[in-house]
# Entry
Amino acid sequence: MAVAAVPTLFLGYFFLYPLSRILALGLSELGVGASGVEQRLLRVGWFTFWQATVSTALTFLVAAPMTWAVGRYEFRGRKLAMALVTVPFVLPTVVVGTAFVALGWRDSIGAILAAHVFFNVAVVVRTVGSQWRRLDPDLLNAAATLGASPRQVMRRITLPLLRPSLAAAASIVFLFTFTSFGVVLILGGYRFATLEVEIYRQAIVLFDIPLAAVMAVIQLVGVSTALYFYSRYQERHSASWELSSDESVPSPQGRTRVWVYVSVIATLAILAIPLAKLMQRSLGSYGSLFSSGLIVGNPTEAIRNSLLTAVVATAIALTVGVMAATFVSHRSGALSRWFDTTLMLPLGTSAVAVGLGFIVALDWPIDLRASLVLVPVAHALIATPFVVRITLPAMRSIEPDLRHAASTLGASSWRVWRRIDLPLISKAALVATGFSLVISLGEFGATSLVARPNTATIPTMIFRLLSRPGAGSFGMAMALSVILAALTAGIILWVDRFRAGDIGTF
Amino acid sequence: MLQVRDLDVILGGKQILTDVDLEVDDGEIVGILGPSGSGKSTLLRAIAGIVHPSAGAILWDGVDITALPTHRRRFGLMFQGFALFPHLTVGGNVGFGLDHGSTGRVGEALAWVGMESFADRTVDDLSGGEKQRVALARTLAPRPRLVMLDEPLGALDRNLRERLITETRTLLKDRKATAIVVTHDSEEADAICDRLALLNAGRIIQTGTLDQLVANPRDQWVADFLG
# Structure
């Protein structure tokens, strides 16, 4: 029971309590309803909704050819292609935004949509592609022997059977783009704002915390409604269609082979353009990054802050997450399930709302709002659900009799945990460490609300550089983005060595 | 009439079938008999056009159809795992190969296998024997020129098998179907088919009725295999 106390206190004080304060503030403010506010809310809400819808549709359009190629066929270089297509997805959103600034696409709806597509293509390719590969090929063959042409097979068999993963991918992309912050803040200028960006603007630029809280409530209601329907849908549909995992995926023949390679290479080439441009424009700015005394702050200090924050946040997230996973895996029943669900809540909550919650609520019992730990704690809160999701399966797969055997040999429960559980989950814990580091390094939404000028991280520094006119600071923003991307990629590559198999879904 | 001539199939760099010759007359039921891994299923898949031969030809009534895509061959194939479409009802499965609006034909085909009342059921709820019947009805419903059954009774328990052996033969003979039945069980093959072809390591070793094969085995392997 002791292992449940720490996660409960952590989540209770840093997540549930701030959330309830936002809800209280937002709901009381909703009643007041100053004139003109509704109209603004409606406009921002509508923009948030339609840009997410269009982004999702465009993402599917761009991802379709490559999804078909990797889902339907086995070919040389497929694994490499899957790794490469995932690169944009693991990049911090600030880097993605900066890459499109490097292309010269600022202050336009086109830039926002393009960046959303760039970021999310991997979600569709991986989620739908991996289910496609698990479809029993004999279902498609059977349809052909019954006279269905390849097009009819696609329409009558393949697409209906892929519906669960199509719905999953659509929901995830929609959710990501609906709550998009960094990309929209950087590329949207003042003309385009999602709810997320508007919350930030009201809280930080206009200091209207109550209005920000109202928007956060609307955002939370929207997101949790979407998540609720999504999980209901998944429950009803995915379980009954678990199909055979026949690994006999064919190699493409003849002309199909050409199309497979064209689809994959063209998709990867399109995704490479913004990154190539970013790297090209960063050249020549690395020197000034570390030499000049900037008005906006010191990039070297931001890098040091980011690294330190990442280490502290990861330590907190690992401690809390592994304790929570231990509790959930050692028990069954309603309490454990409820605990498991609560732990996932920060995943569905927007990072900006988490940050806003800190500003609103953490003045009690002592005022923590100026504390240095605020940024690492916010990052840890966001990383903890990932730590739980990664370590929990490893913990559940431990044979209970191993623990029983250790107990009968005289080991105390602490000793059992240290000598049995810990070594057996070490691989998963390393993966979780890598994920936490990456999340913390790239985190922008919560950080932009809670960071002080002296606690700037790499992403907030990039944003500040981008907000200043002049080619010099642009170049430095690009250079800092490349450094952040390299750090992220390095950690992901390191983690990949410990990762067993394919993590096909998100 | 189906003619398979000097067929070679290579899959994943491995030679699965070598110089396979096979003829099936109109209305004849031929059994392909052999141990597991001998290439029986691959032979059916090559005839159906699902896998492509590296050499040789497949002819129907003297016309070379080796390059014809699967969906234009009008050859029915009942798959070993039945391959029922999980998102369609029993009726939806049986009607898949029929034109739109031929609901009458669906009921008719289900009646052949005694499953009329199952049309609106989902395929998940069916027992193994029921799945077999639905798969058979689905294969026969579009009246294919050639019917191929891959281990049609393989997954079923003994009692059910014995009953379905007779049913399957009657069903095929009533429609005067030209058919190939793949199995690894010589008694089952003999009970359903008019003539047998023994397949081992990708080659046709000998053809004839079970009695002929038992009386005059061509080599030691045939004698051993038929016990």
Remarks:
- Chain B has nine helices and ten strands.
- Residues 28 and 178 of chain B are 5 Å apart (CA to CA).
